[in-house]
Amino acid sequence: MARIAGVDLPKNKKVYYGIQYIFGIGPTVAQEIVEKSNIDPNKKIGALTEDEVAAIRSVIQAEYKVEGSLRSEVQQNIKRLIEINCYRGLRHRRGLPSRGQRTRTNSRTRKGRRKTVAGKKKAAAKK
Q: Do the Cβ atoms of 49 and 77 come closer than 8 Å?
């Protein structure tokens, strides 16, 4: 099992898909990494030699910010938004969507499980 940037990559996946398990590497960046390291993208990760794994590792370390450093940068950006009290920071603080989505319905991922509020009882009809 190849270990790159502190992540164990699955043996049975192709290189192109396997390196996307690293935080900060998506399809486009994965394609660039495979091209720069001169590795066949259809080759399985389990079949890579140590030299090929080292080539991938060196390309990632030299040119991309991934895993821990990227996560900490994202958290610092969010903390900065919260501290300067901008709209996006307030939305992060309240745990609501920050990119303009509706919240009357949906947005359950950010808001969490529904908190049921008791409905008002209708006043007794006057006779």
A: no
What tens digit of pLDDT does each residue of 35-94 get?
A: 999 998 889 999 999 999 999 999 999 999 998 899 999 999 999 999 999 999 999 999
CATH of domain 74-127: 4.10.910.10
End-to-end alpha carbon distance in the chain = 79
What mean pLDDT, rounded, does the chain reach?
90
Judge contact between 14 and 47, C-beta under 8 A.
Answer: no
Domain at 3-63: CATH code = 1.10.8.50
Residues of the chain with CATH 1.10.8.50: 3-63
Q: Are 12 and 46 in contact (CB under 8 A)?
A: yes
pLDDT score of 125 more than 90: no
